[in-house]
Amino acid sequence: MSLYDEGHTVAGWTGVAIATLGTSVAGVGVCAVSGLLVGAGLVVVALSALVTWALHLSGWGKPPGVRPRAEWGMRVRDLEARAGHPACVGCRLAGRRRVAEGALSVAAPTVVGDGTGMEVRGAALVGGGAGAAVGRGAS
Q: Transmembrane among the record's keywords (predicted)?
């Protein structure tokens, strides 16, 4: 099982559903050689991004990173969305700039992946260079 909820939110699923509809309309337009249908499908895809963004800003999305297990449910609304999420591009584009308090001085659990889909909680970066080894501590 995954260490976190992987972003299953109302905003995410709604955006995917609308984008799927838009790509289907564009695909039908390609098959029917109809520039109008292709254009309409692409407009629906762009609309899906705006709907997802609006839902995220209204609290139906999730902030970047790991959330506590109690907040994994689809019906759990993010009450901190009004103030903006630290390091969230969508919140910054909306003008909601909240700075992470004490981000440099507070140690927090980390999740490190090696590209295989297997994450390690509490891992430490050894070395610090571009090709640094990832492990549970200095070796």
A: yes
* 44 contact partners, CB below 8 Å, separation of at least 6: 18, 19, 21, 22, 25, 26
Degrees to nearest 5, angle at CA 65 with 64 and 70: 105
Instruction: Note the pLDDT tens digit of each residue in 65-121.
Output: 777 777 778 778 887 788 888 778 888 888 887 655 544 444 455 555 555 555 555
76-105 burial string, b = 16+ CB within 10 Å, else e? bebeebeebbbebebbeeeeeebeeeeeee
Give the Å distances, CA to CA, from 116 to 2, 46, 127.
13, 31, 21
How far is the C-alpha of 58 from the C-alpha of 77, rounded, in Å?
9
